[in-house]
């Protein structure tokens, strides 16, 4: 009855310490990269929080409605977008921007990518064949044309899109309700 063998307390303590070290290494191998990657992703938009803005000084955040024989033909929107920042290298991180055109009940999203060809629906005011994003300190004006009579938008919001296709939080918002253009666009 007294022939029972067991593990000594010294060996048991060493085994528990080894198991604990292995558990810490396994957990750290998963947790550290996970936290590091998520931290990088969550901070990459910080520098772009107010990178794009709607320039109001030029009076080109407005719209016109065109009729043909008393019937609705099209509505043309103009909006001027500026870029600000204190780091020139931020320009290299931006791929484009999204503009959400909001009306009661829903919104329409337009994506403008640097270097992409303009379309009949969305184009540059200066008539260039490719989209150009405003560089830091510059302002560019874009024209959006809709033939949908219900597209009477009340506000616009702008969201930077980074080179990795991540869309950041809204940079700026402007009311466009009732802002009829004084000049033809």
Write out key terms for the chains shown.
four-stranded antiparallel sheet, 185 residues, 2 domains, alpha+beta, single chain, elongated, five-stranded antiparallel sheet, 1 helix, Immunoglobulin-like
Give a quick account of the main beta sheet: strands, pairing sense, barrel closure.
5 strands, antiparallel
* Mean pLDDT over all positions: 88
Measured between the Cα atoms of the first and last residue, the distance is 102 Å
Number of helices: 1
The CATH level-2 architecture of the largest domain is identified as Sandwich
Which structural class best describes the helix and strand composition? alpha+beta
Tell me the quaternary state. Answer: single chain
Shape: elongated
Helix percent reads 10-25%
Order of helices and strands: HEEEEEEEEE
Count of domain modules: 2
Count of extended strands: 9
Low-confidence stretches: none
Might you state the CATH topology name of the largest domain?
A: Immunoglobulin-like
Instruction: Please compute the radius of gyration using only Cα atoms.
Output: 28 Å
The CATH C-level class name of the largest domain = Mainly Beta
> Strand percentage, roughly?
25-35%
Commentary on this structure:
The protein has 185 residues and is an alpha+beta fold. It has 2 domains: 1-43; 49-175, Immunoglobulin-like (Sandwich), CATH 2.60.40. It has 1 helix and 9 strands. The strands form 2 sheets. Strands 1, 2, 3, 6 and 7 form a 5-stranded antiparallel sheet that branches. Strands 5-4-8-9 form a 4-stranded antiparallel sheet, with no helix packed on it.
């Amino acid at each position: 009855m007294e022939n029972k063998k067991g593990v000594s307390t010294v060996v048991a303590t060493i085994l528990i310490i080894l198991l604990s070290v292995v558990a810490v290494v396994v957990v750290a191998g998963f947790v550290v990269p996970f936290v590091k990657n998520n931290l990088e992703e969550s901070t990459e938009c910080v520098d772009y929080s107010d990178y794009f803005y709607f320039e109001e000084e030029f009076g080109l955040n407005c719209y016109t409605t065109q009729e043909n024989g008393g019937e609705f033909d099209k509505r043309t929107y103009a909006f001027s977008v500026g870029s600000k920042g204190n780091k020139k290298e931020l320009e290299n991180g931006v791929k484009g921007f999204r503009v959400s055109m909001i009306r009661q009940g829903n919104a329409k999203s337009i994506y403008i990518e640097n270097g992409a060809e303009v379309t009949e629906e969305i184009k540059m005011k200066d008539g260039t064949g490719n989209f150009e994003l405003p560089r830091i300190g510059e302002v560019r004006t874009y024209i959006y044309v809709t033939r949908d009579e219900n597209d009477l938008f009340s506000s616009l919001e702008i969201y930077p899109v980074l080179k990795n296709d991540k869309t950041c939080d809204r940079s700026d918002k402007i009311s466009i309700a009732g802002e009829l253009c004084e000049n033809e666009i």
